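Tutorial handout. Part one gives the primary structure; part two gives the three-dimensional structure as tokens.
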Amino acid sequence: MWYNIFPRRLDRQVALVCFGVMIFTIPFYVVHEAQEDLDFIFDTAKRETKVIANNIAVNSIEHILTRDYSSLENLLLRIAKFPDIISIQVSNESGQILSDVITSKNGSEEVQPRYSLINIKVPDKNSYKLTEYDDYMEIWTPIEAGKHIGWVKIKYSLLSATKYRDERIKNYLFDGTILSVFISLFLLLAMRHPLSMIKKAVNFSSRLDDKSGEQLPISHQSIEIEELFIALNKTSLSLAEQEATIKKGIKDLETQKHALDEHSIVTITDTSGNIKYANDKLLDMTQYKSEELLGKNSSILRGSYHTEYFYQEVQNVIGKGKTWHGEVVCEDKNKKRHWMQTTIVPFLDENGCPYEYVTIQSDISAQKETENLLEINNTSLELLTRHLEDKVESRTSELRKANEELSELNNIKSEFVSIVSHELRTPLTSIKSFSEILQDDFEVLDPDTRNKYLSIINEESVRLGKLINDVLDLQKIDAGKTTWNIEAVDLKRLATTTIELFSKTYADKGLDLYFEISDDDLVADVDSDKIKQVLTNLLSNAHKFTETGNVTLELKRVIQNPTALVVDDDETCLVYLELFLQGKGINVVPCSGAKKAIEALEDKGKHFDLLITDIVMPNVDGVELIKQIRQLDKKLPIVAISSNSDTSVLKSLLDYNVSSFLDKPFQPDIINKTLNKVLGETKHMSGNKQMIQFSVQDSGIGISEDEIGNVFERFHQVDNSETREKGGSGLGLAICRDIIEHHKGKLWVTSVVGEGSRFTFNLPLHN
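Part two.
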């Protein structure tokens, strides 16, 4: 091999290396210098050839224009005698040869014309062109005489330049080799003494392993050698001191390790979690043998108590070179769990990255068991205490509530007895008084007076009987002893028969009684007698408190919590309608354009009970939008918003079953009437949203705002003289409210003093 023949002495190696470097370097230098010479020669040849071509181009203009081609040929023959010119050609602008001369190929310098070529291919552009080949270069120069009239083409040989370069390379190589030999011999002699000092330092370095603190005599013949010897002496002393420190440190570590092993469980793992060391305490606790753990991953001790996320969080901490403290549950070989107080310390390399982890643990299972028992006891005690507190509080609350109910019942009883006594006493007093008058003065009284007194006694008797019946009905409802005969009832028929009972009574008083119904198919699950009792009470009150005008009973289908889709590109109108409808209890889905409206209707998760849309919008007009909506939903009630729209457009909308129209600017009362009309007559909504609504509208005296909130209270009568004159128990409306609420409906009243009242109740539609 090469290292067997390579000298082992450093001085000879240095000399040989220097010689080799120079031997390898000189050829590159020689080639570089020769190439630079060649490039210089080539550049000179290019410049000279260009000058010759330009000279020919200038001097040939007159010969070409006068067609004096013999003079042109003589010109070329003279110029072609220049060294290294191979040939010269002059052609017209299209490439037709006008004159062509060439040097002889037999090696002589004889120049002669050539007549074998007729045409040549000329360059595409009228500009100077130079092309280099391996042993010659070719130059094209245009001939210009106010215009392009021809070309000069010169072939120039490069063989002389190449030959000159090769000779230069040989000379450079010879000189460089001689120089290399002399430099190598000089280095060989100059390096002998320094290298002997280095050899002495090497021998000394080989003895540094003894760490004895030996010192090397200083040599002052060279600054570098002197500094090397000083450094070696310092290293020798430092190694001796470090050896002593290391021995002491090892002894201390062994002592600490022994103490740690005696007190704690110690494990050392690499960054992958593979166990590199496990002390005896870990083996005793886990019942594993050393060979069963070493090289295995520490996950063998994890068990299933902690989640993978827990261990990932631990790894995130120690992976950053930080110490982790906490409690960890480990499992031994028999799957028994041990609670461990754990500290994991990462050992870092010079880059600050962990290369292994030392885990120090203490078994705290007994402590955790005690803590768990204590926590269980505390929890049990807390639960028991809370339970007792809850029972005491519940019992106290029950007693307080019972006491309050007893007190309230006592007050109600007292009030009830007082009111009933008063209400009973009034008709009884009238009956007793007029009976005594008739008994004492019967013969004296004329027949009309006697009939009048008898009529009063009869009316008060009827009033007394009604009061007693109302009290009994109310008592049954409160006691939960009322019998309810719930069945599917045709409410139109029920309302019709009830009105017939009042037709004569209303006619006698000069009042008109109307019945309005918007749907024939109105059936509800109710007790027909109880609903008839409510209607009778409301119609009776309307008759009682209305002197002139009319009373209307209205029956219709309505929506409970309807949802409206509102479409308008005018943001102000859209917000106004949204707020107005929400104030009426209507859910609103606003859309600012037709595209969003179509998307909302195509959403299967949404159901709409009403569409209110502007019919004049950009992109899609209202008529087109309603056409598309009717393709999606043929029954959806539609209210069209118009603003000075063409009558023909409005008529065309009726073909698409538009329910009603709203004009801009909006008027609240018109919107209310439109909503009542559309939502009252619709059957579009789902069954659980539909209700049946009764309302009794009169043109009577009305109820003030102060009194309207109390009309459904027991024994309450509106506090004015006209009401007192009409009489009444004050229980009828309270009974009506209880009946309607039992049927899962609602009874309410709206009224304007001097204009009349409207009592309304709704009932769930029969499914």
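Part three, for discussion. Residues 105 and 222 are 70 Å apart (CA to CA). DSSP finds 21 helices and 23 strands in the chain.
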